[in-house]
């Protein structure tokens, strides 16, 4: 830790508390809500929407701009609820959506409104392996949770969808919700929605490609009711032309002195020169500002800055790391907090605005001024227009801003959804349908190219992965006959001489020796190789994550529903899925996001998903090779590339 300098600090200062009254068409009860909804439908024909986990209303605002009427919202943040109630008509409530009674009530209420859209971003809490097993079993077998059990919030969201049956669903969340090894939550949600008849599309989107001035990745799921029957599927919006940089977004705002109650902001606003709004983004942010406020900008305030921080900020450029600062300016461990301070680059997009900005603004130092960004600047970077105010003190406003969906993203998704609801596509397949076809083929055809996909024990699969991965086909066929006899590490150790001879014969002595060494370490008379055992072997670097994943997929541990099913993109799986979906770029970029999402979409999460996954590997090795044999492929009728394989081959790498 750097040496401490004495005498620094800032006077405790509380910002003004913004109080916002309800919207003129705010509803006091559910009967008023039903009357409002009926009137809006009759008089305007607008599509009716609800927003759960709505926060301050970023997604609600975007959907309103797209043409939806958001008439119901729920959140469990008191200040965010006040903000939402101020800006939107209808009923906004502070309800706990993990409570089963509340979930049931909300579902029935929204069903009575005949919703066109249910939107929201349910937070995802971590849960145990036992919890995963229970949910996996319930979903696959059509069972319901006990009524009195408190829900994870994403489960609450699904329960409300099941009861209310909206015409469409939009869910926004952090990418981590989808990108764990098993992609458990996302695959569960897709499976449940498809069982309800929804067509489902999901993608990790990068907000900056839509003109939003920050690097903000989000998982977006869009589902359309009866889409599988009516051939309706969400079509993703096209990207914007060019990016919006920090300067484009906030460059017109006046300079400010730090302090929640700076003298220049004593009236709650600062003078604004409308002539400085030169970019299209800045003009959009000023659009609809009331005429009497045309020369004002509200909430353009920031926290006070310590003198030593001000000196540190002055030394920083956009590339400066916290660890680059002189030692006397480092109050935190620079080996842990290497990016504790970050000056935003005026000529680039901002880093992600998160709720942490409410605690300190060190990640968001103004591009030119030696201070952290203001409430209004943060709101601009999240695409909230200047007329949008936030209830509570400045820290509450910053928290609401950091937690919000950018309104611009909401509008773009809303526009695309309205178009998709009116535009049938050629054909829509469910994940379960494709998975069933793949699994049926796998049950009829023994694995010959990768025979350890039919292993009896996980040790057999691990042994083959170590010794035979990418081996010549004749070697695989002959050596597997020996390997499969050694069902445990003990049996492999007992056959050490034969194993080493095989290694010499196939020119893989180093692999044979590595396998024998692992067998000796694992040889203890007990060989369960549970999911936890595999994780421990990976953690100790005894095996790779890929080897553990193949073993877990090939051989379930215990009951099928209790064993993990990691999503694997190796062994040619991405090549097959790229051809099947027609998304040829999957093999080149974003393999761990777009690639894994596409694989998960193909295999689903039902009773056939494990077999379907191993079928993709075997198909890649036997049928869907660089020069594919489409006529014998079990999923040819689903394949977007079956009639243009020659063109696709010219674009995709061999292997």
From TrEMBL:
Pfam families for this protein: DNA_methylase
Gene Ontology MF terms: DNA (cytosine-5-)-methyltransferase activity; DNA binding
EC code: 2.1.1.37
GO terms for biological process, alphabetical: DNA repair; DNA restriction-modification system; methylation; negative regulation of gene expression via chromosomal CpG island methylation
Keywords tagged on the record: Methyltransferase, Restriction system, S-adenosyl-L-methionine, Transferase
Highest taxon listed in the record's lineage: Bacteria
Entry-linked NCBIfam families: dcm
PANTHER family documented for this protein: CYTOSINE-SPECIFIC METHYLTRANSFERASE, DNA (CYTOSINE-5)-METHYLTRANSFERASE 1
Designated name of the protein: Cytosine-specific methyltransferase
